[in-house]
Design goal:
Layout lengths: L5 H52 L5 H6 L8 H8 L2 H4 L1 E10 L4 E10 L2 E14 L2 E4 L1 H11 L10
Antiparallel strand pairs: 1-2, 2-3, 3-4
Length: about 160
């Protein structure tokens, strides 16, 4: 029942098996980014957002650093510098309690702002976005908060 060249049958079987293994490996490789990459990207994005929001809202962070963590931060430079001189602003901290990625470049952030250790804006929500490859506090979120104080900077007019 074997063909005259019995090696050719085995060769075809090996070829078929080899093709199956290669195709299986390609399929696993194709799944890997969606199965594993998104999860790790989500985790790293969440960590970056929490870190950057905590740094931005810390009263101990210099204004120049805050500029790099705020959407269009250079437009807020004078306001951030003036704010850094305020004793009230220097006692500010934030705790991020939830980050929900809504796309590869945007997220909804749930947080509480504290002044002198007392919560003043509990369970607030805002937006984070990627600008210049950095997760930043959105200008709209920042402007909404400073408008609660009364005087929003001129740069807020575009948000």
């Amino acid at each position: 029942m074997f063909s005259r060249n019995s090696n050719s049958g085995r060769g075809r079987s090996r070829l078929a098996l080899g093709s199956f293994v290669v195709l299986g490996a390609l399929a696993i490789g194709a799944l890997a980014p969606s199965a594993f990459g998104v999860s790790s990207r989500s985790t790293s994005a969440t960590v970056a957002i929490k870190t950057n929001w905590t740094t931005f809202f810390s009263g101990k962070t210099p204004a120049a650093k805050k500029e790099t963590l705020l959407q269009d931060g250079k437009e807020f430079a004078a306001f951030l510098a003036a704010q850094a001189k305020s004793a009230q602003a220097r006692s500010t901290t934030v705790k991020v309690t939830k980050v929900k990625l809504t796309s590869k470049t945007t997220a909804t952030v749930t947080y509480t702002i504290y002044l002198g250790g007392a919560p003043v804006e509990p369970n607030a929500t805002g937006k984070a976005l990627v600008q210049d490859k950095v997760w930043k506090v959105s200008g709209a979120s920042f402007c909404a908060l400073v408008s609660l104080e009364g005087a929003a900077p001129k740069a807020c007019s575009k948000f």
